[in-house]
Amino acid sequence: MTKAVFQNPMFHDEDKAREALEAVRWPDGAICPHCGNSDQDKLAKIEGQKKSHRPGLYYCNECKGQFTVTVGTVFERSKVPLTKWWMAAHMMNSNKNGVSAHEIHRALGVTYKTAWFMMHRLREAMVVSSGTPMGGSGSAIQADETYWGNTSKRSKSYRKGLKRKAAIVALVDAETGEARTFHVRHGVSASEVREILVTNVDRKSTLVTDESRLYTITGGEFGDHQTMNHSGREYVNAAGFTTNNVENFFGVFKRGMRGTYTFCGEQHLQRYLTEFQFRYNNRSGLGISDGERTAKALKGIEGKRLTYRPTN
């Protein structure tokens, strides 16, 4: 990330930042968040008519309501300038290993608490509804599980053994590169893995896993089940299938968590998974630039609210 990037007016001009956010949220014109009215003839921008009018204010003739681009989003009622929201969003989306709240705090000149909360709001915006099942006939879906906990033996909260660590299941479509992640609380079992698989993977798909017993029975419910003998150092089986993609995702996630965030309470783990999942699904390898990734993340601000209390 270069200094030239932050020369863009939306990073230091509040009006430009608001206009950029309006373009992302309302590409075809403003929409009233109160009644859903999108008729531009019934929406009026009343900014500047009175000194008391806040910048970017709209009036809806349909429901008689007033709104700005932040109403009904994770930014609603935030006192942080939109220029800083844009900068924080860009910083989070321009590094595949993430960025720490301390770095956001230093770069933006906000308190650490504010930076931490901003990042959680942006993670909320990155949540993408997993609508249709992944894969289908002729598609291979890689599945794997890993465990995450405090790995520093010097820490008072060091947890030894898989049973005391948080379980994570990830799915990756080998063809499209899409990943989905799941924090499984209180340990992972075959029944929990089955629920994730049958809900998120098309039954006609080829399921690709290691030889863990977690997948043995459920694998028979799919079009085909290909396995790797990892204990025998098999990483590509005789049929040419591999779980390298999902393992690569876990590698990026763990490097970021250890090197950037260093610690994550289990109650926040799914939020961090969502962040890494979003960047992975919109990575440069798929032809998506940092700016496009940032704009796509901010498209998700609508219809979501996050207060400080639920993040504790």
Automatic annotation (TrEMBL):
Protein name per UniProt:
ISSpo8, transposase
ISXO2-like transposase domain: which residues? 133-281
Instruction: Identify the taxonomic lineage of the organism of origin.
Output: Bacteria, Pseudomonadati, Pseudomonadota, Alphaproteobacteria, Hyphomicrobiales
Any one Pfam family here would be: Zn_ribbon_IS1595
Please give the organism: Nitrobacter winogradskyi (strain ATCC 25391 / DSM 10237 / CIP 104748 / NCIMB 11846 / Nb-255)
